[in-house]
Amino acid sequence: MANTVGIVPGSLSGVFVYRRELRAHYRVTRLLLPSSSAGGVTGALLLLHLSADIFAAVIPWLIGIGTLLVLSGPAIKNRIGRVAA
Predict the structure, then answer these.
(1) Mean pLDDT throughout 53-58?
(2) Rounded to the nearest 10 degrees, what angle do helices 52-71 and 73-84 cross at?
(3) Could you give the CA distance from residue 76 to residue 83 in angstroms, rounded to a whole number?
(4) What's the chain look like in SS3?
(5) How confident is the model at residue 83 (pLDDT cuts 50, 70, 90)?
(6) Cβ(24)–Cβ(17) below 8 Å
(7) What are the domain boundaries of the chain?
(8) What pTM, to 2 d.p., does this model score?
């Protein structure tokens, strides 16, 4: 709870300050918002309803998959760029 109290005001003020820059990315934001929201809600529901043992077993896999996606991001971007061209 303490993190949320600190993060939410900072995030909202950041959105306000960078609103002009965010308008330039409106289309991409609109495309990513539904999947990001669904992932956040799904993760929150799983966190609330799964037992601690199951959650502890799943977390390393989620972190590993996320790490692989971040590391392979440039290769994915290059491949998508070649296909689109």
Answers:
(1) 90
(2) 60
(3) 11
(4) CHHHHHHHHHHHHHHHHCHHHHHCCHHHHHHHHHHHHHHHHHHHHHHHHCCHHHHHHHHHHHHHHHHHHHHCHHHHHHHHHHHHC
(5) low
(6) no
(7) 1-49, 51-85
(8) 0.55
